[in-house]
Amino acid sequence: MTDYLLLFVGTVLVNNFVLVKFLGLCPFMGVSKKLETAIGMGLATTFVITLASICAWLVNHLILLPLDLVYLRT
After folding, report:
1. What global pTM score does this model have?
2. Does residue 12 contact residue 6 with C-beta atoms inside 8 Å?
């Protein structure tokens, strides 16, 4: 039971995307008056973050690691 409580607290408070990263504030605060616009902005934000993560992975594994430039990671 303690594990579930710690998982819940970690998910809601510590690893919450809106509370930890400011990237999620626009769809959360800006367009949340209408459900359709909030869903659209949330999907757009999810798409951009997913695309950026894929690009960062590709740069890391295809450029930085083979050329031993890991110190350029930010």
Report:
1. 0.58
2. no
Q: Return d(Cα 61, Cα 70) in angstroms, integer.
A: 10
Provide the 3-class DSSP secondary structure of residue 2. Answer: helix
Separation CA 68–CA 57 (nearest Å): 15
For 39, the enclosing helix (H) or strand (E) is helix 35-59
* Closest of 59, 51, 28 to residue 41, by C-alpha: 28
Query: Scanning the structure block, which residue is given the tokens 């579930």?
Result: 4
Cα 9 from Cα 13, distance rounded (Å): 6
Answer yes or no: are the C-beta atoms of 48 and 33 closer than 8 Å: no
Read off the pLDDT of residues 24-59 as tens digits, 9 standing for 90 and up: 566 666 666 778 887 888 788 889 889 999 999 999
